[in-house]
Design brief:
About 70% of the residues lie in helices and about 0% in strands. By secondary structure, it is mainly alpha-helical. The chain has one domain. The longest helix is centred in the C-terminal third of the chain and has 29 residues. It starts with a helix and ends with a helix.
Length: about 180
């Protein structure tokens, strides 16, 4: 999954949960939820696919582990107890939704790291570093009927619906003043 899939689907899940649990709408900062939805890739892709590509050759490492999300939850608990600040919880939720959307449980060596050892599996792709970034950019402009493409379209749709709803609320707020 790529940018729009993670952002849109995470926001969609949150909106659905907000209908069931209305208190979430006021407790979770959407900016931090969105950042959390991208956080595992922001941590792992530069390290594993670009900077240390020849060593790791993997874009799903520490940020894609259950331990990473768990540590964010612990930090969130600490900050909430100290300052009643829920922003790190939003990061943790976004990060957890990201690894669920990536279906990382299919790679238990990554998902449950370090229970199965300290290493991470290497990807089977032949390109890394700058070539990886170029291939990702190229593939984002070649739509094909795949799980990634469908997720991106769904994510974009959710983001458009969310943006239109937000704009309508803003316009109605300004017109009533």
């Amino acid at each position: 999954m790529l940018l729009f899939g993670h952002l849109g689907i995470t926001l969609g899940i949150f909106i659905g949960l907000g209908i069931i649990i209305p208190r979430l709408k006021s407790a979770i900062d959407l900016r931090y939820l969105a950042l959390g939805a991208l956080l595992p890739d922001l941590v792992d892709k530069p390290i594993g696919k670009v900077i240390f590509a020849s060593t790791f050759s993997n874009g799903r490492m520490i940020g894609h582990t259950l331990l990473f999300s768990f540590l964010l939850v612990l930090a969130g608990i600490h900050l909430y107890q100290k300052r009643r600040d829920t922003r790190v919880f939003a990061l943790a939720f976004g990060s957890f939704f990201h690894i669920l959307e990536d279906q990382v449980w299919g790679r238990p060596q990554t998902f449950l790291w370090p229970l199965f050892g300290w290493g991470f599996p290497k990807d089977s792709i032949d390109y890394t570093g700058l070539e990886y970034l170029i291939k990702m950019l190229e593939s984002s402009f070649k739509p094909e009927f795949s799980q990634t493409f469908i997720s991106e379209i769904m994510g974009m749709g959710i983001i458009v619906i969310f943006a239109v709803s937000w704009i309508k609320k803003r316009l109605s707020k300004y017109s009533s003043e």
